[in-house]
Predict the 3D structure of the following.
Amino acid sequence: MLEINYIKANREEVLKGLKKRNLSTEVLGYVDKIIMLDGKRRALIGKIEESKSEVNRLSKEIGELFRTGQAKTTESAEKAIAGKEMVTELKRMITGYEKKLSKIETSIQNHLYELPNVPNSLVPSGAGEDDNEVFKKVSGELPTPGGDGLPHWELGIKYKLFDFKLGTKITGSGFPVFTAKGAALQRALISFFLDKAIKAGYTEIIPPLLVNEATARGTGQLPDKEGQMYHAEKDNFYLIPTAEVPITNIYRDDIVNAAEMPIKMVGYTPCFRREAGSYGSDVKGLNRVHQFDKVEIVQIANPDNSYDQLTEMLSHVEGLLNDLNLPYRILRLCGGDLGFTSALTYDFEVWSAAQKKWLEVSSVSNFETFQSNRMKIRYREGTEKPRLVHTLNGSALALPRIMAAMLELNQTSEGIRVPEVLVPYTSFDLIQ
RNA sequence: GGUGAGGUGGGUGAGUGGCUGAAACCACCGGUUUGCUAAACCGGCGUACGUGGAAACGCGUACCGCGGGUUCGAAUCCCGCCCUCACCGCCA
């Protein structure tokens, strides 16, 4: 959620930035609407507080009359009664103002919820994913798969690594069951990613996988993206779509010390996504599933250097992909494809050698104060007033598509080779 | 699932319906004293919104789990909700 004061002070920039997102003129109009409503809001608050101040003054006066016993004399008694009547009248007026105020505030709030984050100046304009800027690409030819060049879902069957039919039996489609060396490989990747993050200074977190409404609201899954999450209705808990949700919320309503920043956290969790309404070859195999594993890195950063931290996170993710020898490219998302809450996002895609297409495996973003404003995560520099922190996060990495690309690329006529860095974790180097 | 207790500032913890934004202590920050450290002493020490100011800061309003009610006036009384803790039962 954008800050009203920011919108007011930077109206032109906000409008210019938001235009990159291809918003309707109606939504763009919210900017001025919010500024207008905020003016009305202030005027009303002024009136209300003036009246309340008068009520407090009168109440004190009446109290004084009673306390000192003066109210027993006729003159003072009349004064007290007159005071009471005035307070009653004032309160009636206040109630009226407050009703108006609450309507205006709700309206401001609703409009603010509709406004996405202002894209960073680096964000290219564009309508959708075809307009994303290729920020970094592999040098040379894209590798071709060895062996029979099977897609990963066939490799999964051939080597008994994962089983979709079994998942359907137990739960439903999109819930793969990993078995034997497939399971071991999965576990190896998780441990490898975690260890790398810990070495890079991240603190490991194992958060709850179910979160309450306040938490889901904090990172912006609620109110609009309700359909994305599984909901345990009886207890009103949501299954997390990403570890970002519980981990970022650790600091909800907190004021952290500037010296503690950047706060770097990493968490492995399963992620649950309902992803209603997607069909076709994009969802085949591990390309898109309802439950998947992911290692997520989260940072709470000082606004002064949050973009340095973003760069640091990019290199971290690059390091992982290099270690696994997977060909990848980095996209800088354009305004049309940029997530609602993000100011700048880089997507990492790995090459699926058998499917001959790019698969998104990581999304690294700086949300600036968009999330922290909603969650009220602030920091204090010395004795200064608290200011909102910047929040950042990135996948490091999402497992299924890494698994897919890795299996396809490393297949040979003898079997599937395990990347060297994973062998200490798997204790086998070939899947036969 | 059953029963009981309780939710006050960073922490512990007082608080009679008006003098309580809230005692006291601890922590923290600044200072004085002091061979050094420590101790002692003095002072400061919440947040949000509104308003004035270049700023320092001043003024106003709100906040003692959340929401509502009673009252001229509520941390204090009443109602609803949420949460926490303890014990019992069940259980990985």
